[in-house]
Amino acid sequence: MQLDFFPSRTLTFYLARQFTTRIFGVLIMLVLVLQMLDLLSESGDILAHPGNGEAQLWTYVSLRAPQLIARFLPYSVLLATILTLATLNQNSEVIAMKAAGLSAHQVLAPLLISAALVSAISFGFNERVVTRSTATLKAWEANEWGTIPTQSAVRNNVYLSDGNNILMAKTVSGSNDGLVMEGVTWYRRDSRMMVAETLTAARATFAKPGWKLEKPSRFDAQTTAVTALPDTVIAKDVTVRQVELTNINPDGQDVFTLTRTINALRESGRQTSELEGNWWHRFAGPLSAMLMPLLGATAAFGLARSGQLLIRAVIGMALGFAYFVIDNAALAIGNFGGYPPLVAGWAPFLLFLLIGETVLVRTEE
């Protein structure tokens, strides 16, 4: 019986149902509260743009909610683990299961399987929904809550060097020769690197070579005069390839697009450690949900009448939150080159997997 992790079909479905119900209940509660707080902080800026109203607020909610769900799903699994196991312990259900011959791993097995399913759903949700909403939201925010971008692979605040000159764009959308820049500013600098003139335009397209500014306005730094110009081609040395590899937002790309981006940057001789760390974390991050039942398992065992149930629940919660802290710290250190990308992405998960298993075996098995 000790080798059968699901000795009772009825018990397995009972524990899984209790666990998954609490996961989604806690998640809905967290997302609703955090979404309201976030909307309160951003609604003023959104409504300040002419023409924006209630529809734009709902659009913001639809774009922001997937990010909140992805970020706080592992926290919801942790809290659901504590609630489920503490309730089972309080009602002496864990004692009954252990008296029937079940080991600690058999008690946790339905929760681990449920968490594994949540991890798989989380990965698919992140890749198909969160990446797209993140890219759109960042581009919309860069556009100062004006027109909502409809193009895919939108990048914002692109900064390019054109010899001594500087080319900037609020947003860049499209791909290959169909790249379109919006909110474009071109600074021409003299030999002393001082700005001699500035050209601004609402839109620029690739001119093969160079970038054609549509009806730009020219500001002369010496005379302070502003004049309107016809369509003008600038930055002939700036290629489409350079623009596509500038200011990449890994959170707005799915894992396949990010793979191609990393390969392109590596071929051009650019540093890719930050993007590689993010790539590895795309897999380790969703798996953190599977780790939570193991870290919160201390709340399941021990006599409730001993008065230590609250202490055990706090220990389980502390282990879970310690994982999130160390995971974020490792990813940040990896972005600065302190850890190899593989270590930054996977080391916290493997470390706390060993810690959780060690605590469970030494205290309950």
From TrEMBL:
Record key words, sorted: Cell membrane, Membrane, Transmembrane, Transmembrane helix
What is the membrane topology here? Multi-pass membrane protein
State where the protein is found: Cell membrane
Which Pfam families would you find in this protein's record?
LptF_LptG
Q: Name one GO biological process term.
A: lipopolysaccharide transport
A GO term from the CC aspect = ATP-binding cassette (ABC) transporter complex
Where would you find the membrane-spanning parts of this chain? 19-37, 68-86, 107-125, 283-302, 309-326, 338-361
The coiled-coil regions, if any, are: none
PANTHER family attached to this UniProt entry? SLR0882 PROTEIN-RELATED, YJGP_YJGQ FAMILY PERMEASE
Name of this chain's protein: LPS export ABC transporter permease LptG
Organism equals: Novosphingobium flavum
Ranked from the top, the taxonomy reads:
Bacteria, Pseudomonadati, Pseudomonadota, Alphaproteobacteria, Sphingomonadales
Per UniProt, what is the name of the gene that codes for the protein in this document? lptG
